Amino acid sequence: MTEPDAVDADRKLLERIRAGDPDAFEAFVDRWGDRILGFGLRVCGEREDARDVAQETLIQAYRGLADLQHPRAMKSWLYRVAANACLMKRRRSKFAPRRELSLDELMPTNPQEAEASVPDVSALPDDELERSELRRTVRDAIAELPDHNRIVLVLRDMEQLSTAETARALDLPESTVKMRLHRARVALRNRLAGIYGPGDHDTEGGP
Amino acid sequence: MSHDHGARECRELFARLSEYVDGELPEDLCAGIEGHLDDCPPCRCFLESLRRTVRLVERMPRPRMSEALRAELLEAWRRGR
Q: Rounded to an integer, what distance in angstroms lies between the CA atom of residue A49 and that of residue A45?
């Protein structure tokens, strides 16, 4: 769905909610349920927590939707409610690093490390990616990121929020969003390059 | 290559690469980055691997809400109304 279509879908949904349509909650769940569940799973890491987050977020957010000024604000606002629900569930990840690496430390200065490659999935069909070992490796590598960087990566690169929308959802300056996103992407890239590089790995599924 | 990889200019470029990938930098900065990339194979390879990483994350499959959870959610909503 393109951005204007998505805003239009949210505008129609808001109109139904404001008009008191009894089926509007179901339509809201159909439109946002999978996304909020996925967000909860990727941020919390536990299926049980993600179910709770989805349930709490969808019910709590729905109650406040009628007061929303503009459909364009719906996405940031939903993820804001969901992010807060995830925070309430927060437990220290067993993978969480003890100390976060600085950007300088994350930079591969050795040319060999800088040139190590990451698999190219441009031409890989969805179902093959879904079955692949690569998918599990990426999922686990994302889980190992520090929480505050992972949540930005999930919003920007998985949920496709813009920098401004992510900043509003997390109540952060845009510069902080950009910095955390970059750290998350570089840490992930280094992890994958450490597993799959050096050499080229076009569209292959396993290490 | 007129410098060793890891030089100050590589570090400056490295810090802005996600913004470059996302098209969030002004044109003059992009031109500077592209000039450096022409001259620095390690930075060029790193950028390509960063792009592939972003594509991989974007392509990760989204879980779907099960029918059971959907039914539970609709029931919780009806009870709470």
A: 8
Q: Kindly determine whether residue B73 and residue A58, on different chains, have CB atoms separated by under 8 Å.
A: yes
3-state secondary structure (DSSP) of residue A201: coil
Q: Which residues on chain A are in Cβ contact (under 8 Å) with B15?
A: 103, 182
- Nearest CB to A37; choose among B46, B49, B63: B63
pLDDT at A97: 60
Chain B residues in contact with A197 by the CB 8 A cut-off are 49
**With contacts defined as CB-CB under 8 Å, which chain A residues touch B11?**
104, 107
pTM here?
Answer: 0.89
| CA distance, residue A45 to nearest chain B CA (Å) | 12
pLDDT tens digits for range B57-78: 999 988 899 999 999 999 999 8
Q: How many A-B residue pairs are in contact by the CB < 8 A criterion?
A: 135
DSSP of B1-62, one letter per residue? --S-TTSHHHHHHHHHHHHHHTT-S-HHHHHHHHHHHHH-HHHHHHHHHHHHHHHHHHTSPP
For residue A93, give the DSSP letter.
-
Per-residue confidence at A186, pLDDT binned at 50, 70, 90?
very high
Q: Which residue of A has its CA nearest to B16?
A: A182
Please report the ipTM that was assigned to this predicted complex. Answer: 0.91
Using CA atoms, how far residue B22 sits from A107, A109, A141, A143, B35, in Å, is: 19, 23, 22, 23, 18
Q: Is pLDDT above 60 for A207? A: no
Specify which residues A202 forms β-bridges with. A120
Reduce the DSSP state of residue A202 to 3 states and report it. strand
Q: Minimal Cα–Cα distance from B30 to chain A, Å? A: 17
How confident is the prediction for chain A on average, in pLDDT? 88
Percentage of chain A with pLDDT > 70? 91
Radius of gyration of chain B from its Cα atoms, rounded to whole angstroms: 22
- On the question of pLDDT at B1 being above 50, the answer is no
